C-alpha cells in the first residue's frame, strides 16, 4: 500500500507528541520525510539556546529539519501547532495540499489558542478538526471532525494531551481512508458567517484584581475557575498585592472549585517559593 511522503510543521511539546505517534505507528499510510519548526530560542534565566521539541525528535529519528521554506516537493504537508503562517506560494509544493490539525470544533475558535478559549468560556464540549489549508487562518474546508465532552476539572494541559490523542486517531483514520479511496475525500465548507477567533496568549491575560479574587472566594467563583483552567500552566492567573510599601506579583498556582466558590490552595509571590495559601495569608493577611 502506498504511503504518503509528508512534511511535518510543528514546534511545541504536544506537537512533538503527535509526531512521535506518526513515527511509531507502522499501520498509518504516511511517512514523515522532513519537519519544519521554529528557530532555536534562548530559554530560562541563563538564556540557553534550545531546540524545539519537534526538532529534537526529528534529529533523534534522522529526519531532515528545516527552519525556513527551502524544502522541495512532498505528497502532503501536515501542520499541528507550527506558530507561523505558510506563504501561499508554498502550497504548490504539495501534491495533495497541506492538512491542518486544529484542536477545536471549527469554525469555532480559529487562531492561536483554541483550547484555552474553550475552557475560559466554560464550554462543555470541544474536539479536533482536520482542514485543507488555504490562504486564511484556519478557514479551509473540513476533512474530518471529532467531538468530545470536557471534564469538569480538566485544565488546559490535560485537555491538550487528550485532544492530541484524539486528533491523532482522527488523522490516521482520515489519511488511511484517503489513500485507500484513490486519494479522494469528501469535504465540508466552513460557515464563515458563524465563526469565532482565539488570540495568542499573553502574560497579561492572567491578571485578576484582588477584589475579584476575594469575591470568588466568598460567592460565585466559576468564571475565575474557568480562567485558571484555561491558562494553566502558562501564563497562569495572578494578581498584584502590597507587601509593605511594595507592589508584587502573586501567582495563584493551585485552586479548586467547591460549592461554586474557589478554594485557593497554593500561591507563589515573586522571588519566593510556592507555599500553601493559608501560610501566605497568615503572614500577610491580604485576603479576609
Automatic annotation (TrEMBL):
GO terms for molecular function: methionyl-tRNA formyltransferase activity. Its EC number is 2.1.2.9. It is an enzyme of class 2 (transferase). Pfam families: Formyl_trans_N. Transmembrane segments: none annotated. Residues 7-173 form the Formyl transferase N-terminal domain. This is methionyl-tRNA formyltransferase. It comes from Candidatus Roizmanbacteria bacterium RIFCSPHIGHO2_12_FULL_33_9.
Amino acid at each position: 500500500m502506498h504511503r504518503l511522503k509528508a512534511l511535518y510543521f510543528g514546534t511545541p511539546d504536544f506537537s512533538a507528541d503527535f509526531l512521535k505517534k506518526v513515527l511509531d505507528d507502522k499501520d498509518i499510510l504516511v511517512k514523515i520525510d522532513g519537519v519544519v519548526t521554529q528557530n532555536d530560542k534562548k530559554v530560562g534565566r541563563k538564556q540557553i539556546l534550545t531546540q524545539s521539541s519537534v526538532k529534537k525528535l526529528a534529529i533523534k529519528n534522522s529526519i531532515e529539519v528545516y527552519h525556513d521554506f527551502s524544502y522541495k516537493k512532498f505528497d502532503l504537508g501536515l501542520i499541528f501547532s507550527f506558530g507561523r503562517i505558510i506563504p501561499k506560494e508554498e502550497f504548490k509544493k504539495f501534491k495533495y495540499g497541506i492538512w491542518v490539525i486544529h484542536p477545536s470544533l471549527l469554525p469555532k475558535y480559529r487562531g492561536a489558542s483554541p483550547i484555552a478559549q474553550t475552557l475560559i468560556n466554560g464550554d462543555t464540549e470541544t474536539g479536533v478538526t482536520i482542514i485543507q489549508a488555504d490562504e486564511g487562518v484556519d478557514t479551509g474546508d473540513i476533512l474530518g471532525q471529532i467531538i468530545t465532552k470536557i471534564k469538569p476539572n480538566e485544565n488546559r494541559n490535560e485537555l491538550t494531551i487528550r485532544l492530541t490523542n484524539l486528533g491523532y486517531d482522527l488523522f490516521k483514520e482520515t489519511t488511511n481512508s484517503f489513500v485507500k479511496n484513490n486519494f479522494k475525500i469528501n469535504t465540508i465548507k466552513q460557515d464563515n458567517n458563524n465563526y469565532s477567533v482565539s488570540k495568542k496568549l499573553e502574560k497579561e491575560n492572567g491578571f485578576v484584581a484582588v477584589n475579584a479574587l476575594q469575591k470568588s472566594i466568598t460567592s460565585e467563583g466559576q468564571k475565575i475557575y474557568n480562567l485558571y483552567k484555561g491558562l494553566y500552566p502558562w501564563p497562569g492567573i495572578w494578581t498584584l498585592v502590597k507587601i509593605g510599601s511594595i507592589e508584587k506579583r502573586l501567582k495563584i498556582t493551585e485552586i479548586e472549585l467547591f460549592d461554586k466558590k474557589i478554594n485557593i490552595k497554593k500561591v507563589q509571590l515573586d522571588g519566593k517559593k510556592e507555599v500553601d495559601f493559608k501560610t501566605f495569608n497568615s503572614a500577610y493577611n491580604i485576603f479576609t
